[in-house]
Task: inverse folding
């Protein structure tokens, strides 16, 4: 599992921002956190790093998203002992 902490910078226009939030609230694996006028903190969960990178690129292309900062990344995997019977 791959978890990323993000800061999303959104468009200055409040109408565009409202539409952007509608899109972000439905984004798979994305949990929105604290919001300020133009920025929102978010957590992104993905199965692996490649999926996380693709999701961040997708967020960068989302209408109303001006910039995506990845401020934290964690990769967790099960221990070898957990895979054994």
Result:
């Amino acid at each position: 599992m791959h978890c990323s902490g993000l800061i999303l910078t959104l468009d200055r226009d409040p109408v565009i921002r409202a539409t952007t939030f509608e899109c972000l609230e439905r984004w798979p694996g994305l949990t929105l956190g604290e919001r300020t006028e133009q920025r929102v903190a978010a957590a992104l969960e993905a199965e692996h790093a490649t999926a996380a990178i693709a999701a961040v690129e997708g967020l960068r292309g989302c209408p109303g998203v001006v910039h995506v900062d990845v401020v934290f990344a964690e990769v967790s995997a099960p221990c070898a002992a957990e895979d054994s019977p």
User: Anything to note?
Assistant: The CA atoms of residues 13 and 30 lie 22 Å apart. Helices lie at 14-25, 49-60, 80-83. The chain has one domain: 2-83.
